[in-house]
Amino acid sequence: MRLNLFASGFRSQFFLAGVAAVVLVPLWAFSFIAGTPIGSGWPPTLWHAHEMLYGFIACAIAGFLLTAVPSWTGQKGFAGRPLVALAAAWIAARVLIATSAWWPPLLPTIVDLAFLPILAVLVMIPLIRSRNRNAALLAVLGAFWLADLMFHVGLWRQDTPLALKALIVGIDITLLLVTVIGGRLLPAFTASALRRPGVDTALKSRTALTVLAVIAMVSVTVGDIAWPDTRIAGWIAGAAAVVQAVRLAQWRSLRTLRQPIVWILHLAYVWLPIGLTLKAAALLGGYAVAAFWLHALTIGALTTMITAVMTRASLGHTGRPLNVPPLITVAYLLLTAATIVRVFGVSWPGMRYPFVIAVTAIFWTASFLLFVGVYSPILWGPRADDKPG
Predict the structure, then answer these.
(1) At the N or C end, where does the chain have fewer CB atoms within 10 A?
(2) If we measure between CA atoms, which residue out of 223, 232, 217 comes closest to residue 273?
(3) pTM, entire model
(4) CATH code, domain with 289
(5) pLDDT tens digits, 251-264
């Protein structure tokens, strides 16, 4: 009998993403506060940033794509051995990187760089075979992989600025995914949630704004490549923030407040213009309150969107009603609290930086412990409707 965890792409990847969130952040926080080495030969800050992006976030993206592509193409998704191989590659990379001081430097690099190509092959086959319009996402995956490659080049050269620049570009690429995919999910799911007999719930999603939003986020990426940490990058971020805010205003966010599984999607997208505004404020005016703009984008926009998608897709694709348990609503609120403390905590009276890290880690970890506790039986167990997958 096939293990349920590998019966569909989202199951193993969402479970591993949840476990990574529970493990990686407390480990980083303890190491930072106590001054205890992690075991990796990498600089601690680079280890933390890389593992959150190419460990946690990439794992969740894989789960989404392996679930969405069969829906987009009408073809059967992968199960069994290909998913086991993908999960094994991801786990091996995390272990080798965490203990990289013990290995030849090239080994963790090769294993880490193998994950995204394996994922690309799995999603490329149905996309190309069906000539699906979403095949363009393969180029985004390729760019994401190239940013990881440049990160490793920076490590080899002991060029910390290059490694950090590669990570920023990698984050920009994932924000482009949020713009494209989130821009489809929000209006569709919101309209479905607001649907009432005899009431028009269609949401306008203007094509011009969609195109502008994509162009804006591509421009942010180009700015961080060509003019990193400059006023030019700041002006680009500010313009992108305006576009994203206007785009979000189309989608009736305030009408979703009674449905956590919907408002969490809107909250994730709200952090996108907020983070971009803070970035502009930091680069153009050097405002201290905006210094941690990056975490508004990574915890606020990216992680909140990932959590929203994982909690919804795991229910829908296992034949369960689309209503999150109350504990998951608490998890949403804890993650939001973690974002607010991480982004703004240092500017509050009496909040020293180590304390901010500790409080953020507590809120974050509690949020994902709830996710893992509630969703492990769902991800490991059979579908509620007894269908395969």
Answers:
(1) N
(2) 217
(3) 0.94
(4) 1.20.210.10
(5) 888 888 889 999 99
